[in-house]
Amino acid sequence: MLNKFVILGAAGDLTSRLLLPALANLKRDKSLPDGFEIVGVGLEPLTTESFREHIAAALTEFAKDVPEADRTALVGALSYRQADVTDAAALKVALKPEDGPMVAYLALPAPVFEPAVRALTSAGVGRDSRFVIEKPHGTDLAGVERLNALLRETCTEGAVFRIDHFLGKQTVQNVLGLRFANRLFEPLWTGEHIERVEIRWDETLTLEGRASYYDRAGALRDMIQNHLLQILCMIAMEPPSSLGERDLRDKKVEVLRNVRDLTPESVRRRTVRARYAAGRIGEREVPAYVDEPGVKPERATETFAQVTLNVDTWRWGGVPFVLRSGKALGDTLQEAVVTFRQVPEISLWRDGHPQPNKLHLRFRPDELSVDLNLNGAGDPFVLEPAVLEAELAPQEMTAYARLLLDILEGDNTLSIRADEAEEAWRIVTPILEAWQGEAVPMQEYAAGSAFEPT
Ligand code: BG6
Questions:
Q1: What's the pTM value of the predicted model, to 2 decimals?
Q2: Hey, whose CA ends up nearest to atom 4 of ligand 1?
Q3: 346 pLDDT more than 90
């Protein structure tokens, strides 16, 4: 296990809200190695002392369930060096790479990945170190291909960890258990029996002060390019012969490779983009997206995206996969719904029509349910809907804690491989290009509404 954890871009939100709370979880669980140290690096003029104070305050909020003694010990392991992460000489002084390998976590905006990797290498951070790239792993296909080429010169693929925290979510991993550990589903898991798959991530969250990132990303880059395509992979993949990193990632990339290319014409028919207007979410008055601080309306950033994809394989031919995600919606609805085909239409029933069976894999709260048709209570020849429900075991480790532990241990199974990142960008690139024109109009929805695109 490596015991030096360097965060480049340490003063950002990700460090205090997610990375340090996750490390605090690992500290509590005694999963961190002896002599573990965390070095924060960034341009912000902080000192080790003020950085420690800032993190200690964040941990009281975001790692409440970790005993104070563990939080204090973790804060004691922190130091801060003010440096430009693209300046090799400054990094050499700040990081002392000659002391040994490290985890270099690039908690940076995508355009800074390449110069930061170059600077780390010139500073002497060697092939025995690990490089962690936060999502989004780039801003377009060409950029991701360039970054991957640079990483190939820098280290082995095994030393690169492209983060998608959805892969650390137990409910996402559970798709594999459900499919491959139960005889019930897999024989029906084909286009012959499945009509449609929807993967939906509706959030009530708005911008939450993230305009500097989000206004350049938008819903397609922020959610669909990575998280939702990963869920699609889990649902659509062929059975892997092991859950090792090679077999699992080969099967995921195979799904992405088989997603049909969108043309400008199909982007027009198969995608929706929209942006929230002023509204109310619960008690909260929400301004229109374009009036949020830091937003530039001329960027035409979408806060809602929907894309219908086809996976052109024998198993999935003709089955639409609808991926949608939006912010500032009325309800949190985060689930994958697998809709099975109708049973044959014969007039067996005195009353009621059988509705298609639907399997709901709900990611928040962690639940699973199946919509069935059963005989009615009074008259057995009358149909009634019924729901079979199961609550999934609560996640013991946060998704980030799971992924950080894997990084420290050098296990890439739950990180995104270079070819996987490129395929995912190949899928969304034609959409991004077509959206730059007028072909797909920007729809509007009131914040807090239940938006259904027209
Ligand atoms: C992040 C996105 O990666 O995932 C956010 O940047 C989004 O915009 C979040 O809200 C959703 O994940 P979770 O686990 O917080 O529901």
A1: 0.95
A2: 223
A3: no
